[in-house]
Design goal:
This protein has 127 residues and is mainly α. It is 50% helix and 6% strand. The protein is elongated, with a radius of gyration of 17 Å. The termini are far apart.
Length: 127
């Protein structure tokens, strides 16, 4: 008799976590660190879910690779600074916690597939 494994895998940003406000703020700060005009909030919303390197390349294609790399590094540092603020944690979407609890109770193994590094994922999901 074979046993079937039930697996549910979710993206983080925009699926489990409503992190768009934090992402927009952090991206704005990263560009400002280099005295560059920040991307519009709408432009940033369109890159949510992409890896940071691809996201910066898409919203700032006219910058050099070196400038894009500097913005990525600044974003990573600033993201953790923003998350360290009291009460800054990005909220789960309504019903997310209950849905995950129900899936886990039904025997699903839960996973997250994301472009975030482990440090970034822990910052938004681990209390």
């Amino acid at each position: 008799m074979s046993k079937h494994v039930r697996l549910a895998v979710f993206d983080c940003d925009g699926t489990l976590v409503d992190s768009q406000h934090t992402i927009i703020e952090t991206m704005t700060m990263a560009f400002a660190a280099f005295e560059l005009d920040p991307p519009t909030p709408d432009a940033v919303r369109h890159i949510v879910g992409l890896t940071l390197e691809v996201a910066v390349e898409r919203i700032a294609p006219d910058l050099t690779t070196a400038q894009q790399t500097e913005i990525v590094a600044a974003y990573r540092d600033l993201f953790h600074e923003v998350h360290a603020r009291p009460g800054q944690r990005a909220p789960l979407f309504p019903g997310t916690e209950a849905a995950l609890d129900a899936l886990e109770a039904a025997g699903f193994i839960l996973g997250v597939a994301t472009g975030k590094g482990r440090r970034g994922l822990d910052a938004v999901l681990v209390e």
